[in-house]
Specification:
Helices cover 39% and strands 15% of the residues. The protein has 214 residues and is an alpha/beta fold. The chain has a 6-stranded parallel sheet. Helix 4 packs parallel to helix 6 and helix 7 packs across helix 8.
């Protein structure tokens, strides 16, 4: 798998860095922000291209207006599986402040999941563990394989296999088992190596606990 930043995330992050920069908010602008992406896009020895869109929940109107089209442009001509990762963001100050205002339920995905469900993307990766996203929203993605975050990417603890298995079973109330791929909420670069490794071990063990009951 190769993972690259998606169009919405690149454009909106650039705008945050330089408030004087005015994006044209079009799919074409994503190709201007990082010329090195073109070389990465041409790599052939991978079985999946994943686009990381950690800012999709913040800019839902842009997603519906041009973000889906930009995703399609990024995967045009590929024969491998394609995926998009979405979450509410970790370590981005703007996202953290915004999350503090959202209340007890995070329902922003409700606005964009219908568009993602009919998109050309094969798989959708999203956070669920310890988040305030109602699991029932997974039912809006009936046409997609889902990489469901069942392990949090926080430093407070390493989940037990039983806890991971519980998170998987909760998601299975809304996602068919054959379409569900347990994963982490997001990347674990900010977490100490030993803790990240422990979470990966629990992820595998928890998935095994569920799989042997199917």
């Amino acid at each position: 798998m190769i993972c690259l930043s998606g169009s919405v995330t690149k454009i909106k992050t650039q705008n945050s860095i330089d408030q004087r920069h005015k994006s044209d908010n079009s799919p074409q602008s994503c190709w201007k922000l990082n010329p090195n992406d073109e070389e990465a896009f041409n790599v052939r020895n991978y079985n999946c291209r994943q686009l990381a869109e950690t800012r999709i929940p913040v800019f839902m109107e842009d997603v519906k207006e041009w973000g889906i089209e930009a995703l399609h442009r990024a995967i045009a001509g590929l024969s491998c599986l394609t995926a998009v990762h979405i979450c509410y963001g970790y370590g981005i100050e703007e996202n953290l402040r915004w999350k503090d205002t959202l209340g007890s339920e995070w329902r922003q995905y409700e606005e964009i999941f219908p568009a993602l469900n009919v998109s050309h993307i094969d798989q959708i990766s999203l956070e669920c563990a310890d988040s305030r996203v109602p699991l029932s929203l997974l039912g809006l993605l009936k046409n997609k394989d889902l990489m469901v975050g069942v392990v949090a990417v926080t430093r407070d603890r390493v989940e037990s296999p039983d806890q991971v298995a519980g998170n998987i079973r909760a998601a299975m109330a809304y996602v068919d088992a054959e379409r569900l791929y347990p994963c982490t909420n997001c990347g674990m670069v900010p977490i100490p190596y030993d803790m990240a490794l422990g979470k990966i071990h629990s992820l595998a063990a928890g998935a095994y606990l569920v799989r042997k009951t199917l």
